Amino acid sequence: MEKLYIVYPEEIGQINPNIYGHFAEHIGGVFYDGLWVGKDSKVENINGFRKEIIDKLKKINPPIIRWPGGCFAETYDWKDGIGEDRPTRINWWTNTDNRYESNQVGTHEFVELCELVGAEPYFAANITSTTPLEIRDWIDYCTSPKDSTTLAKLREKNGRPEPFNVKYWGIGNENWGGGGNMTPKTYAHEYRKYAIIAKNAYLNSILIACGPNDVNYNWTQEFMDVFQSSSKAMNGFSLHYYTSVENADDPTNFSKDEWYKMIGKSLKIEEIIERHYSIIKGYGMEDYAKLVVDEWGCWHPSGSGPSKGYNLYEQQSTIRDAMVSAATLNIFNNHCDKVMMANVAQLANNLHCLFLASGENCIATPTYHVFDMYKEHQGAKAVKTICDSKNVGSGEFDVPQISVSASQKDGYTTLTIANLSADEDANITLEPVGQNLCGEATATVLTHDNYHAHNTFESPENVTPYSEEVDILSTITIKKASIVSIKIKHN
Ligand code: AHR
């Protein structure tokens, strides 16, 4: 029997809704035949966007969507994606998948997608194959009032008199790699240059600098070294963290050892957040550089998705990927004083996606259901939890059996628990400290007897949540390989 304390007097902070953000890049099948089917398609659509995805996305309250890359951003010319005659270009990924960018989806279409689902757009700007004037012009096009500048008039000519008011701007993507292969010091100088122009072009802009990959603490340190003496035009510092298991080939047919390895690796993000953040604090930069984990998720080998490899990086998602989602989101909630945004990579037909779609077919993955089950955390106050759970798994990748986070809002507590064991159920008693709770509550449960379970076009609801009443004053059983979300009324 495990005891799970919810320590109400110890508030961690407010969970920024943007922690439940998404990422959609022009890569493989994310847009074309995924989110976008075109206005003339026989697939039901709203102005070209797949209606089924729009409807499902709305249900999970997506706060923000990052676009157009990823690596794609660093060779993207925003002017290719406006107006009637749009050029076809090679893109960042053409050499990998032999596909060209038709630019059917550009600034207007992407912002319309955001508006349809109620999300803020977050643009990642090219700083590698362009100049600061280009980002100044894109900001002008997106934010200048009707009838003001020449670019505002061009926007109106293209069908949108009122500004898009895009607030979130990423200054480059992975500039330690695909984005110019820079050193941290070189990037920091570039950032200072671009950011001062971008901030001045739109004072409401929220600017995000390219931070490190994974455990590259040196990047954070050297960047902060150069940044600290600048005008400090920065509101967030990105971090990318993908989880993979070496030599694993099939994300739907892994060993139990690989179950624990994948989950164990995903949990490392906690230490990574703490260490990067402590460097930022060491420079006194925490007011400028809260973390934006704008790419995260499992990265399996390509080819397991419905397109069988045609869509670059498209992968199937099992209940194991849902466990990674649940545990990662718990970590973000528990560190919401350090993390201001996170964007799971990616929305459709790609890594750790929420949707798999092609032609008339469209399914939600187990990860989609986790975002649905966790949505009550958005904007709530995170409170500390302590669970004396044992470790499970074997050898190098022992993991704590229970991953948990809790938050309170409007007289309710939302408690999200993942039992990371593929072998054993967990029996838990709740110990609220400083708050009385009603005994009866509704729990939503996502689980499956087979830990390889996933959804397919043929069997779209194989992994789908169910609801049950629970008495939280007695022992709660959290089944092995399950995620449970409980909304509890305060007394
Ligand atoms: O998500 C796929 C790619 O992974 C992105 O384009 C890049 O930023 C990262 O390396």
Question: Can you tell me about this structure?
Answer:
The chain is an alpha/beta fold. 25% of the residues lie in helices and 26% in strands. It is built from 11 helices and 23 strands. It has a 9-stranded mixed beta sheet with strand order 21-20-23-18-17-14-1-19-22. Helix 8 runs parallel beside helix 10. The radius of gyration is 22 Å and the shape is globular. The chain starts with a strand and ends with a strand.
The gist of it:
The chain is of the alpha/beta class and 491 residues long.
The oligomeric state is single chain
Number of distinct beta strands: 23
Mean pLDDT: 97
State Rg: 22 Å
- State the helical fraction: 25-40%
State the end-to-end CA separation.
25 Å
* Main sheet makeup: 9 strands, mixed
- Give the neighbour order of strands across the main sheet: 21-20-23-18-17-14-1-19-22
Strand content: 25-35%
The DSSP helix count reads 11
What structural category characterises the helix and strand content?
alpha/beta
Poorly predicted regions: none
Bound molecules: alpha-L-arabinofuranose
Q: Indicate the overall shape.
A: globular
Question: Which key terms come to mind for this protein?
Answer:
single chain, 491 residues, alpha/beta, nine-stranded mixed beta sheet, eight-stranded parallel beta barrel, 11 helices, 23 strands, globular, binds alpha-L-arabinofuranose
